[in-house]
Structure formats: C-alpha cells, structure tokens
Predict the 3D structure of the following.
Amino acid sequence: MVGTVLAAAACALVAVSGVVAVTTGRMLPTLQGRVVRPELWGYGQLVFASGMATGISLRWWAGSLAMGDAGGVTALALIALGCVLQWRAQHPATR
C-alpha cells in the first residue's frame, strides 16, 4: 500500500511538472540547458505520467491475464512514447 501511495505521489509530481512546462515554459534548472523545446518536454512528461498512472491503476488486475497484459502493454507504450517526446525536446525541430 505504501509503495502504491509513493508511486502515485511521484506520478502526480511528474504530471504537475509537465503542466507547468506546457503552460509557462518553465522547467527545473538542471534541464534548462539541455531542453530546446520546453512545451514538447512538458507533453512528454504528461504522457509519461499517464503511463505511470495506467501501470499503477491496472496493477490490481494483474491476476487477470487479459487485463494485466493489456494494461502492462498500454502503460509501457505510454511510458516509451513519453520518453521519445522528451528525447525529441532536446533537439531543434527539423523542417
């Protein structure tokens, strides 16, 4: 139970940081030198946080083969997409 609460708190912190990056363009000081497109970074954090939330919420259905596998694949896909968006935010946009 404590692990779930801590994971949910971490998910909420990532989501709040993503909302701040999308709406204001502000980021943590350690990221300001690397990230070229803060809005895209924020969207990546939001997608990453939704993957974390999916993994946390569907963990209770791990006993069900279909729901456990589908939830795990969905969570993994969202986390991977969030990482790709954050990686792309570190490079200038191509035309």
